Amino acid sequence: MSWITEEIVNGKKEKALNIILPTRGCSYNKCYMCSYSLGIKPEENLLKVIKNELEDRKVKKVKIFTSGSFLDEKEIKFEDQMEIFEYLSNTDIEEVTVETRPEFVDRENLKKLKDTLNKVLEVAIGLESANDYVLEYCINKGFKYKDFLDASEILSSLDIKIKAYVFLKPLFLTEYESIIDAVNTCEKIEGIVDSVSINPMAIHKKTLAEYFWQKGEYKLPWIWSLLYVLNEVSDLDFYVISHPVALGKRRGIHNCGKCDRDIGKLIAEYSLKNRKIDYYHECKEEWEKILKREW
Ligand code: SF4
Ligand SMILES: [Zn+2]
């Protein structure tokens, strides 16, 4: 499966190909909000999948998702990772992004991969929060902030770009607390990462998040909260994007329903320019009331 997005590559707006590689999925697979690995049919020949998806597409960037970690050898054997990078090194692509959990960031392997690719390499890590309490009790992430820092150090030393996913509104945090946690996380990783993607909760099937949401004990975040976070972090020294899954839908971040689409467009624009969003709709007052109650 693949789709095209617009991204900034080498300072210019370019097309990027996003590919989901059918591996066996995340070998950790315990985060409370995630069921990416559900129902995947793993493919043997992953290089063939990449070749097919890339065929005749004029893109400058490729982002490879695996519903887990590209660098996890249980998902993709190291020789297959190398084979994919070797192939990409002979294309017009200028930048490649892969995702991983921090424990799979291995200096030796990454050096070989980076040298083979010989292009800009970006490694994205789902940090979610820089608060160990939130990582453990609200997300069940299975690693600590320090693990992210250790992985980042290796990546920086190899001149590999770092992207962090920061989560908005995990289980067991109020709307207000989740805003503060996302902003604090961004402030903490300034100077460490090159870019940040703010990812608000979307309800996946068969997760603990779905269980609490169905019982009415978890409320999805307002888009106002995302807007607030994006505006707060826009001046930090990294590039910020947000492509919320299911924005405006029942299982995704939403406002009143009337302003969701308009704000969705503004967020897409923000992701290219990082300029503060100025927008008002009457439902903002209800959001403000909720925050004041939670203060
Ligand atoms: S969020 Fe990432 S690390 Fe957590 S279970 Fe899903 S794929 Fe694995
Ligand atoms: Zn509204």
Low-confidence stretches: none
CATH class: Alpha Beta
SSE series: EEHEHEHEHHEHEHHEHH
- Largest pleated sheet: 8 strands, mixed
Query: Can you identify the CATH superfamily?
Result: Aldolase class I
Q: Tally of extended strands?
A: 8
Could you describe the 3D structure shown?
The protein is an alpha/beta fold. Helix content is 37%, strand content 18%. It contains ten helices and eight strands. α3 links the parallel β4 and β5. α1 packs parallel to α2 (78-89), α2 (78-89) runs parallel beside α3 and α6 runs parallel beside α8. The structure holds iron/sulfur cluster and zinc ion. Residues 255-256, 258-259, 281, 283 line the site of zinc ion (ZN).
Describe the SSE topology.
Layout: E1 2-9, E2 12-20, H1 46-54, E3 61-65, H2 78-89, E4 95-100, H3 107-117, E5 120-128, H4 132-139, H5 145-157, E6 161-168, H6 175-188, E7 195-200, H7 208-214, H8 223-233, E8 239-241, H9 260-273, H10 284-294
Parallel strand pairs: 2-3, 3-4, 4-5, 5-6, 6-7, 7-8
Antiparallel strand pairs: 1-2
Helix pairs in contact: 1-2, 2-3, 6-8
The structure holds iron/sulfur cluster (SF4) and zinc ion.
Key attributes of the depicted protein:
single chain; 295 residues; alpha/beta; TIM Barrel; eight-stranded mixed sheet; 10 helices; globular; binds iron/sulfur cluster; binds zinc ion
Q: What's this, in brief?
A:
By secondary structure, this protein is of the alpha/beta class. The chain has a single domain (2-294), classed as Alpha-Beta Barrel (TIM Barrel). It has helices at residues 46-54, 78-89, 107-117, 132-139, 145-157, 175-188, 208-214, 223-233, 260-273, 284-294, and strands at 2-9, 12-20, 61-65, 95-100, 120-128, 161-168, 195-200, 239-241.
